[in-house]
Design brief:
alpha+beta, Double Stranded RNA Binding Domain, hpI Integrase, Chain A, 3 domains, five-stranded mixed sheet, 14 helices, elongated, DNA recombination, Tyr recombinase domain-containing protein, Integrase_recombinase_N, DNA-binding
Length: 398
């Protein structure tokens, strides 16, 4: 079969005409861009294949069908299979599990979160797994009923209907879509047979910039709302978020080994952006950690109802609602600006990787100090009409 060369793009692949007879084979015309990846276009289907010469033989492996398997996923699958075929211990890799066995969404989710087929993907933390599972239980059909449905029976119509039903919760709808899409992408890499991705071409909701639930030009009700939280673990987590600006997902996954309360330092092994960073803690933030009972050997903010997992995502506080978890990052950033702290320092302190403009960004390390977080803490206290000098005592005795 003669191979024709084109530039692989989503548009060019979509426009390739089906063959009137036989099969036409295509490869990318750019050297080294998509090695060993071929597209066979037949009378009715377009099929991705891995074709590689190894151990004196040409190995051919079906990867999936276009458009259910898009170019990005096909390239990842080809890379993974190429490495296995090149290994002398593998002729063609055996499936991770029997591919003929029908599995439901729950089982596919477990494979997605425990079996990294592509080594370049991030290993899922326990906190992430629990967060994803909670989203599926709450939104994957009524009361998470999709979890027990075979994955080849979940249709695009079902996904679209759920997106429409969640139009008043666009962020959760988008998150659900991304989780299910990731599960199916993983299945395409694992399975020998072909599976359709029901999330293909389903539109997510655009991200929205959320305004604060109160007027930030006046008094901030944040501290008062947090101190009304009865559970000491949840209350301390809120206080840490307020006085550090760190994302709630990172705060909830903190372990005791990450803390040095003698030096007032917190280390996050891996932030959302993949970096490790050590943060200076203000006195209120340290007090919030010291106030906590140690109910788990590793986790600082451990769930009391589910062993070995962090506390769940916290709902907005106040009646009416005045504070959401992500709002604490807004308030921390605003307080930093009011305190006159350099923009790059504030971004560093709240865990962002983008510190400024220009080539010097990658060379900035440890640019913020305790005096910066103390200044921010003073502003937060002032805006919340609270005495900063009394914060530690209030936190430790409440």
């Amino acid at each position: 079969m003669a191979t024709q060369r084109i530039k692989f793009t989503e548009g060019s692949i979509d426009k390739l005409p089906f063959s009137k007879s036989g099969t036409n084979r295509y490869a990318d015309q750019r050297k080294g861009i998509f090695p060993n990846l071929y597209l066979d276009v037949g009378v009715k289907t377009k099929t991705w294949r891995l074709v590689k010469f190894a151990h004196g033989k040409t190995k051919s492996k079906t990867l999936g069908k276009w458009p259910a398997m898009n170019l990005h996923v096909a390239a990842q699958a080809a890379d993974t299979m190429s490495e296995r075929v090149a290994d002398a211990t593998h002729a063609l890799p055996a499936p991770v599990v029997a591919q003929t066995k029908e599995i439901n969404l729950r089982q596919a989710f477990l494979r997605h979160t425990t079996e990294r087929i592509d080594p370049r993907t991030k290993e899922k933390t326990l906190n992430t797994v629990y967060d994803y599972l909670s989203t599926l239980r709450n939104h994957a059909g009524k009361n998470g009923e999709w979890l027990d449905v075979p994955i080849d029976q979940i249709t695009r119509a079902m996904i679209n209907a759920q997106m429409k039903a969640m139009q008043d919760r666009p962020s959760q709808a988008t998150k659900l879509l991304r989780i299910i899409s990731a599960i199916y992408r993983n299945e395409m890499l694992i399975r020998d047979d072909v599976i359709d991705d029901p999330t293909f071409r389903v539109r997510a909701y655009p991200s929205q910039t959320k305004e604060l639930l109160f007027d930030p030009s006046g008094r901030w009700p944040a501290f008062d709302a947090i101190m009304k939280v009865e559970d000491v673990t949840a209350r301390s987590a809120w206080l840490v978020m307020l006085f550090t600006g760190i994302r709630s997902s990172n705060v909830r996954s903190i372990e005791w080994a990450d803390l040095d309360l003698e030096q007032n330092l917190l280390t996050i092994p891996r932030l959302k952006n993949g970096t490790k960073r050590t943060f200076p803690l203000s006195r209120p933030a340290s007090a919030a950690f010291k106030r906590l009972p140690r109910i788990h050997d590793n986790l600082v903010f451990a769930s009391k109802s589910k062993a070995g997992v962090p506390i769940a995502h916290q709902h907005a506080l106040g009646t009416p609602k005045v504070l959401r978890q992500h709002d604490t990052r807004h308030l921390f950033t605003s307080a930093g600006s009011i305190a006159g702290i350099d923009r790059s320092k504030v971004k560093y302190l709240r865990g962002d990787i983008v510190l400024g403009d220009g080539a010097d960004v990658g060379y900035m390390h440890g640019i913020a100090a305790h005096e910066d977080v103390e200044k921010i803490g003073h502003v937060v206290a002032q805006k919340c009409s609270t005495s900063y000098s009394n914060l530690e005592k209030l936190i430790m005795t409440h």
